Amino acid sequence: MQTVKMVVTGPFNSGKTAFIQSVSEIDVVSTERKISSEEERIKETTTVAMDFGRITVDDDLVLYLFGTPGQKRFDFMWEILSEGMLGFVVMVDSARPETFREARGILQTFRAYAPTPYVVAANKQDMDDAWEVDDLRIALKLDPKVKMLPCVAMDKETVKSVLLELLYSILEEMKEE
Amino acid sequence: MALKGNLRDFSVTQLLNLINLARKTGTLTLEGPDAIAWVSFREGKLIYAQIGNEDGSLTGILTKAGKISPKQAKVIRTHATEKSDKELGLLLINAGYLSQQDILASLREYILNIVYQLFTWVEGLFRFDADVLPPDESITIRLDLENIIMEGTRHLQEYEMLKEEIPNLEMGLTFVERPGANIRDVQLTVEEWKVVSYINPKNTIRQIAKANKMNELDIRRVVYGLLQAGLVEIIRPEGMPLPPQAQKLPPVDTKQQTSLVNKLIDRIRSL
After folding, report:
1. What is the tens place of the pLDDT at every residue in B112-164?
2. CATH number attached to the domain at A2-176
3. Where are the strands (E) in B77-224, listed by range?
4. Which of A75, A96, A76 has the alpha carbon at shortest distance from A139?
5. Torsion sign over Cα A22, A24, A26, A30
6. Distance (Å, whole) CA B18 – CA A158
7. Which chain A residues contact residue B254 at CB under 8 A?
8. Residue B185 lies in domain
9. What is the DSSP letter of B34?
10. What is the DSSP secondary structure assignment for residue A11, as one 8-state letter?
11. The complex's ipTM?
12. Residues A4, B271: C-beta atoms closer than 8 Å
């Protein structure tokens, strides 16, 4: 049995757990804990080690989706999670500009860990105050070549399209090599 | 006994506050990771500062401030080798080359630049030697520490923000290849042009700073401005090895990998 892994990363409360939950065939194995820090108490729980979802391709191949912990004090997990990944998705909460800088920092950190393909998911596009994808691209100073996709983590179709775009990028890179 | 310790335990801000409140007279020596600095005080007022091998002579300070040209500095150095800074200062004022105000403003700027840099030092040792002061022939000034502490703290905040934006000075810079992003159309300061002239995928940001005699705060400030304007981008310099964790995975059978990715694509499409 061969297993491959893709990582879903992004700042705190950017929607990583929901993203994995939307496409995982198992209930996401989550390591969520009640939030202790007052300033981060915008949701009840957060991921402290990793989320873990699975998509079985066939008898010989399984894709695992790993979600990184969003809170900065757990960033020691990132390097471990990024090892051997096929590619990664950076989730950005389109409605919280105060997290954009952090998202950019996470993106740069992951690129340093492994030069694998990645895409950026502009999550929460269904919210009224969500930034448009083009504006987000400028705010995140993303190269025009980097794929940035609108996403609503609870909507399976948009999650699928993000994962597909990442896989297409992986294929393109293989062709270049 | 000298007051001494570690900057990790007692920060520069705390030290200056102590010197101010206790109205201390003497010289504070700071040994950072890359340089040594000396800052002198009289009754709690900042009077003098010197850092590493920087030319802290009056001629060097006036050249740096643009009050005299490097050519004039050379002439002064040749003809006034025996003169102290005080004597040289008087000579320049009497000859009508500079006013007292020019000299004091240049000194003030030079000293403050050093002290503001020190706020960013978080590693290193310090020692305060009471009653040790710069030589009599040096020109000293007298500045209140309260404002310097306030301004230094602002510099520190700016430095921290810039460090977050540009964490690694070992990276290189390259011009952005974007239609409309022409550096020639932008109005740059002298400092910015100096940096721009060294932008080359082979040069690290640290090397550019060194070539321009800029400190970490100043180079980060200029690079940040250029990045924000979308004129340059950070790249890994040519020849720089990837960090160990970023090494590419061992070569795999591309055909097999392609088939695997295609299988994943089909599966996700079918979800």
Report:
1. 999 998 998 888 999 999 999 998 888 999 999 999 999 999 888 888 888 88
2. 3.40.50.300
3. 125-130, 172-175
4. A96
5. negative
6. 59
7. 174, 177
8. 172-235
9. S
10. S
11. 0.82
12. no
